[in-house]
Queue: 2 jobs
Job 1
Amino acid sequence: MARSRPELNAGSMADIAFLLLIFFLVTTTMDVDVGITRMLPPPIDPNAPEPPPVRERNVFVVLVDRHDRLMVEGQITSVDRLKEQTKNFLLNPTNDPTMPEKRIQEIPHLGEMEVSRGVISLQNDRNTSYEMYIAVQNELAAAINEIRDDVSKEHFGIEFSELRDQELIDAVRTAVPMAISEAEPKDIGGR
Amino acid sequence: MGRFKKDSKGGTPKISTASLPDIIFMLLFFFMVTTTLRETQLFVRTQLPMATEVQTLERKSLVSNIYIGPPFQTRVFGTEPRIQLQDQFATVDDIAAFISAEREARAEAERPLMTTSLKVDRETTMGIVTDVKQELRQVNALRINYSTARGERPGSGRR
């Protein structure tokens, strides 16, 4: 018969583990980094030739002034209506001659698509609040994402964010480009 | 015939606490895996704005952070928004050196994938942000991420 061994007291083990746990809770952060990713335009080469001017009908001017007021195509509007206006501009469902042209383009996996040539031009003042700027960026991104969702659903049956195949993602991205151009900084209406 | 032995001693039986450390360790490992170590001490307030159309930054090792916001110690540093790079206050002119140092620290193949994350307080004005963006353009750090919190903007539908 084996002699019964003395039992190890494991009571303090919990305390040690608790100590470690609390240490990690204090020194770490839980949040994941999320945000709106954008590509900045490359620096201007002074020797480069002037780019060809974009036709006026293809430009969607979004202007945020120093008092956080929003102006779209010369008319005062609100952030809530910005998404609808942007979608309407990019899609141009009635083929309005004052709205952007469309170009027929052959895209792999999608076939022939009408690609809008519209460009969103975002201008802001130095005194615009960052919160308003992000709100506007968010609405513009929402408009483009919704159009991409529609294209993706029509062709692949699922939403754009659920696409996993990089080729399909690139196809939808080509069909609905993220055409947001930020103007060279300038003061609108002084300081 | 067996008989049930009656517990001769009264009182409550001892609960084994041997599994308690295991439970705590499990919690510990959970937190160790899901969280990241805080690497910098912030001197500026960065209360991020809300946005719904957000992407997650996948590879933390390729992200360099630029913090912009009003300093915490307003008596010493004032209330004007300041730029913080790593552990110290900086000016717009320091960004070029910061970006090239960050580039040097990464492998050659990964440099084009580097992202600059702008953690900007929501009450900052765009002037300082524009200056930072112009500086980033000059040094060809073109991939940027406006860091936001995920969620609906409070008071949307107000204006």
Note: Chain B is about 25% helix and 20% strand.
Job 2
Amino acid sequence: MTLAGLSLAYLRDRALNTALNILLLTLSVATLVILVLFSSQLAERFERDARGIDLVVGAKGSPLQLILSSIYQVDVPTGNIPLATVDLLRADPTVAEVIPLALGDSFRGFRIVGTEGAYIDHFGGTLSQGRLFAADYEAVIGAQVARQTGAALGQKFVGSHGLSGDGHGHEETPYEVVGVLAPTGSVLDRLIITPVGSIWAAHGFTPPPAAGAADHEDDHDQAGHDHDHDGDGSQDHEAHEHETGGDHQAHAAGGELEVTALLVKYRSSMAAVRLPTFINKQTQLQAAAPAVEMTRLLSLLGVGIDAVRAFAVLLMATSGLSIFVALYSALRQREGDMAMLRVMGARPPAIFGHIILEGVLLAAAGALLGVVVGHAVVAAAAASFPQLQDMGLTAARFEPAELAIVIAAISMGALAALIPALKVFGVDIAQTLADTR
Amino acid sequence: MTTPEPLLEVRDLRHEIAGRCVMAAPAFSAARGQHTLLLGPSGSGKTTLINVITGLITPTAGDVRISGTSMTALPAAQRDQLRRRTIGVVFQTLRLIGALSVRQNLALAQTLALGRSDPAIIDRLIAQVGLTHRADARPRELSQGEGQRAAIARALCAEPALVVADEPTSALDDANAVAMADLLLATAEATGATLLIATHDNRLRARFARTLTLSVPQVSA
């Protein structure tokens, strides 16, 4: 039996008090860990998916909604824009690359994105099986799609209207899986990629004769659905309703073929000065910079995160105070024990260390349990909410900040024990033995 | 042939608190293995004398030597060391650590004194004081008599050269008081320890061959 063993024995001896202190600290540490995991993974995911995209062009509406729907594939689009915009921007010498996106359908909750091979290249996607799509209704699926749906090469599937997966299906125009992408850790993992023409054709439009062609007026009357996008620049809410109701986005309205959004990469910094202003002057278009919108979003989220973080820190401070009160009162009851330890020859620094250790053991137990609970909650949340899975939230990752939290919690335990422990240096053994008979 | 050095020497001890003499003890000594009963009424300074002998307080005047080393002259750290290695103490109020079992109390005392614990010695001592069946019990689960026996075992578990006991029998009835004294004598005898019991309990006088009397403020042999 050592003094360290004695620390443990004292903690065991007042088990309820010990358990409550550990529980309090566990709650605060778990809250902080959840915040760290959530905010760091969210910010990283945002940054990674938006990397290299300078501008997103789409229908007028909320710029944040445009960014969320076009880059992160987590919100409904603001509407559609004329296909002619692609050529317009590609002709601009300050623009290096334009990637069109046509959204509107999904398969088992995974979005079907009509686009070009450049979209896959942008995210560094490589094929783990099969080949890239070469014709309409050929699809390349992301790694997560393949894993969760079990889809394999050669299999056919039917897309559903809308992005929520509960719309009616395009049974007459099934897609065929021709390629499976290797995991990229980006939004690509949970997408089904197909040519833009697939989306048009699935909704009853004849694709243009050549990619990028802008002259498609003759196609629109073939629409077999009710396409009421008016393109008046105020359609973000209407578009939202259409999406959730299983309607379409990537097709014609008002006489020309449309796409949902364009991902734009600048060739020169001049573009950043001129292009957004130019686009925003167009009646149907808006330009949104991912960096700006994400900063705004994270700032908005940051207020909530900061509030929860402040609450967690307050909880931790409370638990520190609770440990202090518990140790202080316990040591008042144990003054006789302390004096007896001195009689048996224990030096004051050793007893000081033993009391500090008691605070540290309490805090370490709370901190480590807090980390475990925090990860368990994140794992449960990710398993329960597909949106969080879509955001790439995972519990199987440890952030350096978690170590800092654990160290802070343990330091707080040591600090809480400090004042009670310091009393050992001033104890009058004979007097204490006389006073605590 | 030289006379063996006494284990304990007390030389003209005097202790004052706020100018008032609370203990005055004339010179006396105890040889190795010698058992001494120090009788004195309440207020005669028995506990103060025990505290001075164990180095817990520094007397106003006089000296205490343990195996020739002046306890009173030593700095605090060395005094703690000398006490740890040489002296076992039994208090009237037991002072067992409540969070530990009897066995763990002994193991802690042994570790503090020797830097290690020896389960064989602990088990032997526990058996010697008749607590084998209560070895894993907490102090609060023990009777007064069992607690006293556990405290004696703890004082002896590091095999100290000197065992001092402060009023070890004051809370016990006649039979138990005598039994406790006999136990202290027997266990000290078994380990060869010098035993000094400070008490006002006259019931113990018959058990000791040597008795000193401490009065206020003087000690006379």
Note: Chain A has two domains: 3-45+301-435, 55-288.
